[in-house]
Amino acid sequence: MEIKNEILEEILPLVRKPARYLGNELNAVRKDPRAQKVRFAICFPDLYEIGMSNLGLRIIYGLLNSLPEVSCERVFLPDVDMREILRTRKIPLFSLESKTMLSEFDFIGFCLSCELSYTNMLAVLDLSGIPLLAKDRNSAFPLIIAGGASVGNPEPAADFVDLFLIGEAEEALPEVIERYKESKIKNQKLKITKEEALRELAGIKGVYVPSLYEVEYDTRGVIKEFRPKYPDIPARIRKRVVEDLNQAYYPVDWIVPYIQIVHDRAAIELMRGCPYNCNFCQARSVYSGLRSRSPEKVLELVDKISRSSGYEEFSFLSLSTSSYPYLRDIVVSVSDKFQKQAIAISLPSLRPKSYLGALAEYLAKVRKTTLTFAPEAGSERLREAINKNFSMEEFYSAISSAYKAGWQAIKLYFMIGLPDETNQDLDGILEIAQKVSKLRLESAGHPAQVRLSISFFVPKPHTFFEREKMENRDKLKESILYLKDKAKKLSKKITLDFHNLETSILEAVLSRSDRSLGEVISRAYNNGCLLDGWPEHFKHELWLKAFKESGKDFDFYLRERSADEILPWQHIDVSA
Questions:
Q1: Alpha helices, DSSP H only, in 73-206?
Q2: Tell me, what DSSP letter sits at residue 411?
Q3: Residue 128 contacts residue 92 (beta carbons within 8 Å)
């Protein structure tokens, strides 16, 4: 069923930012739904401005729409005003392109980039009239598939998702679509069950179907045994890896929103994987091994996306952008070619390299954006402990060169709550910020603006620290106050921006939990928890209530794990 135009014309003037729900942006794909054998709704479970900033969503959207007999349409979590209208008027949530209710799609695919989006996913299902629990959905409902950074441990969402895609989607997802087409034909002839269809999909490398596994717990709530229900189901699920990025699909018809989104620029992925082995980094494990796009391919993508979209800012993305071997050549070529158009280049989270000083001069020829670095820890001792390869000598040299080229602002990422952290390590954070600010005195006569983004260390799955405990909140609060108090004596040019402590701790709980936490997530959603990644919407007390109602100990998931304990994510194989 499609939502009638008259209804849209009536309700859109009643909401903020109605352009979120139009679906007719430049380069949006509109296929005839009736001519497709498989219909896929791709969902980033957050507001439009967040979802349209997600590269993974754009890749999957373009990839599936490039396939014959397949259509892919977008859907996002509506804002408060639209949700209220949909519920009051009993209008089911609909896709953007064809305005079709989600229950009529074959798949709903969720991009789960953060554990705090689990309740958002439930809201999307609920607004669509689709049962939240996978066990309550028969073959008449869409299959719910999920992928993204947070499914390195898929277990917390196991109650709600039919199948997870572990790793990278470009090759695996078309295989899922083809296998699904085959199962639809079988279903028409043999009336196969949903479980039988899922068993066939589970044979694809990288596909994890949680309902095909059984979990047994001991009296403490620790996993005692994790096993497949059937002999043909793999005991471990190996991630999918795209071997050749030059041959992999990449969207060039870049969708241009009518409203400003969070990252309102075009993005070019330079590499996947990372040459470094930081002990705290989950992304490095999930997206290993290291693969690069050729400089020729990168320049081709920049040219095509610029022509199709008119974007004036490009972000060159990877886990370690400064490690891309052709970065200087790319920046020089782009800045020379697009200097008249004032194209800006964004390089997120750089490592100090000797060539960055010269690179800053080329970047300064176009519109300047903030240079970003991630020292992560305030002392060399702690950086060595977390295996963060970060040369302070090269860092300060690169900063000085950037200032001479005209740069004015620097952003630095740090973590606190690392194992064995002391106040001296915290002092080091502010000392680094002071020196970075004062280095601009040499070239400009006044200090630079330095913004510190300070997050809290979370011992994530598939990292060196996966069995470590999360630092307790009282100690973390002490560290926050300590830094704030010391920062008052520093230049006003230095600002501190702390991540929300309670959401960080909840993220740790969700990322380290098992499938028994599904009840807590359901209760939290029913209690009113939604958009938990937004400080103004986060309701910590309602999450605690959900834990209490479910008989679960919040701190149980933050504890240290013994060497012989079966981890909830142990069946997920992220080795390259």
A1: 80-88, 118-127, 169-190, 194-201
A2: E
A3: yes
Amino acid found at 511 = S
Cβ within 8 Å of residue 14, ≥6 positions away: 81, 85
Return d(Cα 31, Cα 65) in angstroms, integer: 8
CB of 158 closer than 8 Å to CB of 198: no
Tokens found for residue 376: 């992560």
Measured from the Cβ of residue 128, the count of other Cβ atoms closer than 10 Å reads 23
Q: Are 147 and 111 in contact (CB under 8 A)?
A: yes
- Tens digits of per-residue pLDDT, 117-134? 999 999 999 999 999 999
The DSSP bridge partners found for residue 144 are: 108
Please state the rounded mean pLDDT for residues 418-437. Answer: 96
> Helix, strand or coil for residue 26?
strand
The answer to whether 373 touches 395, Cβ cutoff 8 Å, is yes
Which amino acid, 515? R
pLDDT tens column, 176-217: 999 998 887 776 655 678 999 999 999 999 999 999 999 999
CA distance 65 to 85: 30
Q: How buried is residue 336: exposed, middle or buried, by Cβ count under 10 Å (0-12/13-18/19+)?
A: exposed
C-alpha–C-alpha distance, residues 474 and 460, integer Å: 20
Give CA 145 to chain center in angstroms. Answer: 16
Task: Give the C-alpha separation, 543 to 549, whole Å.
Answer: 10
**Of all helices (H) and strands (E), which one includes residue 416?**
strand 409-416
Residue 496 β-bridge partners:
452
Query: Does pTM surpass 0.70?
Result: yes
Q: What is the DSSP letter of 192?
A: -
